[in-house]
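Write out the 3D structure for:
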Amino acid sequence: MRVAYQYVVLRCVPRPDREEFLNVGVVLHCQAADFLAADWSVDAGRLRALAPGIDVDQVCEALTFVDQVCSGDEGAGEAARQSLGQRFGFLKAPRSTVLQPGPVHGGVTDDPARQLERLRERLVG
């Protein structure tokens, strides 16, 4: 059975004033399958080429926080205690941090987990 999903690409934006970014992850929400997960990969070399001196560990920590929100881990605080839809709403909301979500996109799939993997491979690398 095919189900609708929504996703956002997570971007590392080291200097928002320059409007340069590097895609580092994807968050996918599928309400019908009760699915919310993130898949990410940080290419430290590419990131440092974009922003010499960036703290790559801090970027990875921010992405780990996204994982925690998706999984409902108590370490992520109040956001992780919400419903899956509310958690996705929290993660897709724009912020003025180094890690920012892109626009929301959608599609249909018969396997949300595999679709998340495909999106990360195609959009992040």
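The chain has one domain: 3-123.
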